[in-house]
């Protein structure tokens, strides 16, 4: 199948010997002179205005390399438009390829101060609480975990926790214990006996005296979470940007793709041959084509052997992509949700900063806007860079997700490394067997 190319009008004569008349094979829109780009017939031309592929003919029917051929109309502007694999055939042992991948040969074969109990009871009898019992208990537990006095906690809040004494999860819990209007009214009735208030009640009474306590706490919580979430988002975007640069700049990958194009056009006949490019997913199908006599040898093994002899630098191709694996884990939908949440939080911060300025007090920190501007600029850079690299490889950036695109290359790099190891092990085994023969 031609995987997304423009459908040719019937009859489907791609790849047939010289078709009379040539006008019957146009692609839409059908100018009379443009044929469908099939194999060898001399009169044929193609949509790229390039000469017909000069591909040697195999002496026998070969096992097909199940690639996804790129439609000729998609080749312009991609990496494939700069390739000419025809110059590579003179470096390839075509007879050996014929023997190794002969379709007619071989068939399939087959993872804390202690206190006495009386003292505690005495203190409890003297304490006053206006809070609902469970709320008082939960607030007291939280305050004991904080290990701060009320004065210390209030100091931290006024400093906007510049020393990092409050963990984000503690602030999240504190937000559950902001005094309600009813609680404030009841606590005010005991303002002359503050010393007798239970710990949780006294805490709520004292923080109720702070202007915009809840808003201040929310700002602080957002600031903490912003840093946390930003720290999570930035590496994701960075990995995509870096992986994109790696793919664009790898000369080894470009050469390897050219070699694969040569093999694919040599091994495939008819409509599947004569390709000017292929979908990147085809790189992971190199392991599906097996040699006829030794099915442990795949087309990927074979191509690596050829590269070892003719284009040895290609063997270091897997060193060119240190960021591919991380980039393949990026979920763009989740990342966009995270960015949207950060922007909404920033809107709340800006409203609170404006209120504090109106009161003449110091704002919680208006450095967020600068940080967010830098952040959104990086997001934009991320999007543009990814669009560029997908286009380079002939993929549609509108429908291609980063995790799928980079996942394809990550799998290929893993397969490439594994195939190299296989070949090294085979070579060691052969050398060992040869040594034993000589010693015998």
UniProtKB/TrEMBL annotation:
Ranges where the record places region Disordered: 1-55
Gene3D superfamilies reported in the protein's UniProt record: Formin, FH2 domain
Coiled-coil regions listed: 409-440
Annotated SUPFAM superfamilies: Formin homology 2 domain (FH2 domain) (SSF101447)
Top-level taxon of origin: Eukaryota
Entry's Gene Ontology BP terms: positive regulation of actin filament polymerization
Positions with biased composition (Pro residues): 1-44
Keyword Oxidoreductase found: no
InterPro entries for this protein: FH2_Formin (IPR015425), FH2_Formin_sf (IPR042201), Formin_Homology (IPR051425)
Keywords (A to Z) from UniProt: Coiled coil
Biased composition (Polar residues): 45-55
Family matches, as SMART domains: FH2
A Pfam family annotated for this UniProt entry: FH2
Domain FH2: 52-440
UniProt name for this protein: Disheveled-associated activator of morphogenesis 2-like
Species the sequence originates in: Homarus americanus
Upper taxonomic lineage: Eukaryota, Metazoa, Ecdysozoa, Arthropoda, Crustacea
Gene name linked to the record: DAAM2-L
């Amino acid at each position: 199948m031609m995987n997304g190319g423009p459908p040719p009008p019937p009859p489907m004569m791609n790849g047939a010997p010289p078709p009379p008349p040539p006008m019957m094979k146009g692609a839409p829109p059908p100018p009379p002179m443009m044929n469908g780009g099939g194999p060898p017939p001399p009169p044929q031309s193609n949509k790229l205005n390039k000469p017909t592929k000069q591909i040697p003919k195999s002496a026998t029917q070969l096992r097909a390399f199940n690639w996804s051929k790129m439609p000729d109309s998609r080749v312009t502007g991609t990496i494939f438009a700069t390739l000419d694999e025809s110059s590579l055939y003179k470096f390839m042992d075509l007879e050996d390829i014929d023997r190794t991948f002969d379709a007619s040969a071989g068939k399939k074969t087959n993872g804390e101060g202690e206190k006495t109990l009386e003292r505690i009871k005495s203190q409890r009898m003297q304490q006053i609480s206006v809070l609902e019992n469970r709320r008082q208990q939960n607030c007291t537990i939280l305050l004991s975990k904080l290990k701060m006095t009320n004065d210390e906690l209030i100091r931290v809040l006024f400093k906007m926790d510049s020393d990092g004494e409050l963990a984000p999860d503690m602030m999240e819990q504190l937000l559950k214990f902001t005094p309600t209007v009813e609680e404030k009214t009841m606590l005010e009735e005991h303002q002359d006996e503050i010393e007798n208030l239970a710990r949780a009640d006294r805490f709520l009474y004292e923080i109720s005296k702070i202007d915009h306590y809840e808003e201040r706490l929310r700002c602080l919580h957002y600031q903490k979470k912003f840093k946390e979430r930003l720290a999570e988002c930035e590496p994701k975007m960075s990995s995509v940007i870096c992986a994109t640069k790696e793919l664009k700049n790898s000369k080894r990958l470009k050469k390897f793709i050219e070699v694969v194009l040569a093999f694919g056009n040599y091994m495939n006949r008819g409509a599947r041959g004569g390709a000017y490019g292929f979908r990147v997913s085809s790189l992971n199908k190199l392991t599906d084509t097996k040699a006829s006599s030794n099915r442990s040898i795949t087309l990927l093994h074979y191509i690596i052997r050829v590269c070892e002899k003719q284009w040895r630098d290609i063997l270091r191709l897997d060193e060119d992509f240190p960021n591919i694996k991380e980039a393949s884990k990026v979920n763009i939908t989740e990342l966009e949700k995270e960015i949207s949440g950060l922007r909404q939080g920033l809107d709340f911060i800006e409203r609170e900063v404006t209120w504090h300025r109106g009161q003449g007090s110091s704002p919680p920190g208006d450095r967020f806007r600068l940080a967010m501007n830098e952040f959104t600029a990086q997001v934009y850079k991320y999007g543009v860079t990814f669009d560029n690299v997908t286009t380079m490889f002939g993929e549609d950036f509108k429908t291609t997700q980063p995790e799928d695109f980079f996942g394809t290359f990550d799998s290929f790099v893993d397969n490439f490394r594994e195939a190299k190891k296989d070949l090294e092990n085979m070579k060691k085994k052969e050398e060992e067997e040869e040594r034993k023969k000589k010693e015998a």
